[in-house]
Amino acid sequence: MKEIDIAENTGEYASKWSISDFYEEAEKSLRDALESGEDFETDWFGCKKEINYGKITRENSKITVSVCCHMDDLWEEDDLIYDALWEVTNAENELPEDIIDSIRDAAIDERIDDSSTWTEILPSSASFDDVVKALDKCEANADRDNTGMYKRLCEIVYAHVEYMKEQGISFASPEGDET
Question: Is residue 178 part of a domain?
Fold first, then answer.
């Protein structure tokens, strides 16, 4: 199978504002691959504005379009947890490591992840416009999943904050008052 690097001339990114908003060179590479009628596979290509990646494969008389949308790292960095904490308390606060571990454990139990991947299958004869529509649909679905996971993470963080308040631990409020 022919491998196509549609981001070859644009670095890691093949698209600008959304996964289907291709740079000119990337669009030409993808159009050429689709029009060739041959089987091909792109590398995972990135979007400069978002932490989203796409991959397109034509094999066995079908085109597979996949999009993976990421949020901040939930597992190695604490950014996503602190984003949720800000959302809950509307102020910058620190959490003890055992509470962060407890939030991560709860997130695992709830099957919360920091990314979502969606795939669409198209006929081998699909046009460039059909592929763009599939990319957009996959991106929208993955973003919706991430929004739902983030809301659930905020609920988990909120429950932990409430528990900590019951234990006498105070949090900064937006005005700087302790709550």
Answer: no
Distance CA(138)–CA(92), nearest Å, equals 34
In a domain, 17, yes or no: yes
- Whether residue 93 lies inside any domain: the answer is yes
Cα 87–Cα 90–Cα 95 angle in degrees, nearest 5: 75
| 108-120 average pLDDT score | 88
Domain that holds residue 25: 2-166
Q: Which residue has the tokens 């905020």?
A: 154
Flag whether 26 is in a domain. Answer: yes
What is the sign, positive or negative, of the torsion defined by CA atoms of 97, 103, 107, 112? negative
Q: How many domains does the chain have?
A: 1
* The token pair that represents 149 in the structure block: 């996971």
145 burial via Cβ count (<10 Å: 0-12, 13-18, 19+): middle
Question: Would the pLDDT of 54 be above 90?
Answer: yes
Q: Are 4 and 29 in contact (CB under 8 A)?
A: yes
Torsion of CA 152, 102, 74, 179, to 10 degrees: 70
- DSSP assignment, residue 43? P
Name the 3-class secondary structure at 36: helix
pTM for the complete prediction? 0.81
The residue count of the chain comes to: 179
Report the percent of the chain where pLDDT is more than 70. Answer: 92
Q: Which of 7-11, 20-24, 69-73, 100-104 has the lowest mean pLDDT?
A: 7-11
